[in-house]
Structure formats: structure tokens, C-alpha cells
């Protein structure tokens, strides 16, 4: 197919430009619905006159509906988006990017979705869908599934298709709570995922932002101990990959510690450990939930992150576990490949 696409691009390059533009507009309407023309124009940074012309085309084709609340996608429009996905992947060379990234990171598998989460919010829904589809392939009866918190993991849980068959699985939060957003707390994310998977769940009532002394005393609680023992039996882990500075701030670390992390070249955080670009530990702190030693032993691990600004964090975390699977986006992928070419010694 690639050869045919290359020939077509040489002969009618404008058709590919128009196709990608219309695909992106439809994806944004689907993700942001209901949305008005002006808001969509601002979101896409495209002139309102151009948006108006495309909207009229979509309406005439039956891909969208328009009412006082704004534009919404129709079932026919959703079919077009889904049907075009593989072709858009081919146009943008996504499958080639997947192979190139997998080879440069030396990990088990890479799944890439088009776009850059830093600039296009709808990419989060695509990352979530790709992750949930992958999970459905890996989940087995009686699995214990661990999931971290955060915006990306919340989207994964929300985007999982409702299951009808009970597989007797248990979902647990892989870590203690972080930050102030309730909907992205690990307990809430685990409960939501369990609901979608028609499984059971256990909650870990402890925060990762507590002082080391308080955290140590909490770990002695019999109920917490029971949950921790269950967490150590996780055989499928889904976790978000965070930038070191962002995670340090979410953990409310003292400013001098954050500055020290940056000075030491920390670019990523996982399970209480901070890593530099080479995957070397620069700082360690006690956390609750899955520990780094547990992470290494888990048979099925899916790391998830999107956006070019996460490139260094993804690059570093990929050094830690070569049998992990990465779900990311085009923006992060292209940035990681540039990073790899400039840092082959790492």
C-alpha cells in the first residue's frame, strides 16, 4: 500500500492534504461536541470562513448535525472517522514509525496514534482507545490488574468498552493518591475500570504525598498491608509516564528537592524513583503501592503517554523494562526519534 500511496501523493498531493484536514476537523467535532463554528475555528487555528465551508460539506454528506448547542457527529460521521483511520495511518507512515520507535527503544511493542497531544486534545481519546483495545487482548480470567492515576489513565478507564462477560478479574490502584483532581485519583480510576470490565476492585486509602514518617506508619496498618499484598500479585499493569518536574510538583516535594532533581538531570518518574535520560536513578523516595522492584517482575506492562513534551520521560522509562509495551502518539514518537539520534550513547 505504501508504494501506491507514494505514487498517488506525487500525482495528486492536494487530495491528501484535504483528506487529512477534513479527518482532523471531524475528529475534533467528535471529541468536542457539541461545539460551535467559531470555537472550532479557534481550536484548530483555521479561519472561520474555511471552517464554515467544511461544515457545510459535512452537513450535506450527513456526517454532522447542527442545532442551537452546536455541531455534533452522526453515526455516519463516526463510521467515516473509524473507516479512515488505517488509511490515515498509512498516509502518515504511522506503522513505519511504530517499527522505528520499537527498534530504537528496544522494547517489546509500540503502538502509535496520529497527532500530538500537546496541541490536539482529541488525541487523548485515541490513545485511550488504543490502550483499552490492547488491554482487551491481554486480559485473562482471574487476572489482577493494576492501574495508576492521572488524566491519561482516567481517559483509558472511561474509554474502555463495557464488557458483558465476567472474567473474574480484580482491579487495584497501583499507587497511592496524587494531586487534587478526584476523577483522576488512582482509586477512582481503578473502580471505573473494574466497572467497565465487569470485575471486582479494591481501594488503597492512602496518599503518595504524605511525609515519609507518616507513610511508614500507614504501611503497618493491617488493611493497608492486605491491599499491598494483593497489589504485589498484579500480572497486568497499566501506568502513565510522567515528567520528573511535573510528578515532583504533584507529589508536593520541597522546592529545593525539585531544583536538585533538575540539576541532576532527572527527566522521568516511576514508582517513587526519578531517572535521567539514560534510565539511571537520580533520586528515590518511599511510596505506597507497586514498588520499582515489583514493576520489573510484572509479566505484562503497558506504559502510556502522549505529547512531544513527554519524549524524554518516555525515552528514560523505556530503559527500565525491555518487555514493556508503549502506547503513545505521533508527536512524542517523532521527538523521541530525534532524541535517539542525538543521544546514541545513552
Short note summarizing the structure:
Residues 19-88 form the CggR N-terminal DNA binding domain. Residues 92-338 form the Sugar-binding domain. Helix content is 51%, strand content 14%.
Fill in the keyword field for this structure:
2 domains; alpha/beta; globular; seven-stranded parallel β-sheet; WH-like_DNA-bd_sf; four-stranded antiparallel β-sheet; 13 strands; Rossmann fold; 346 residues; 51% helix; Arc Repressor Mutant, subunit A
For the sheet with most strands, the description reads: 7 strands, parallel
Give the domain tally.
2
Percent in helix: 40-55%
Order of strands in the sheet with most strands:
3-13-12-7-4-5-6
Q: Write down the CATH topology of the largest domain.
A: Rossmann fold
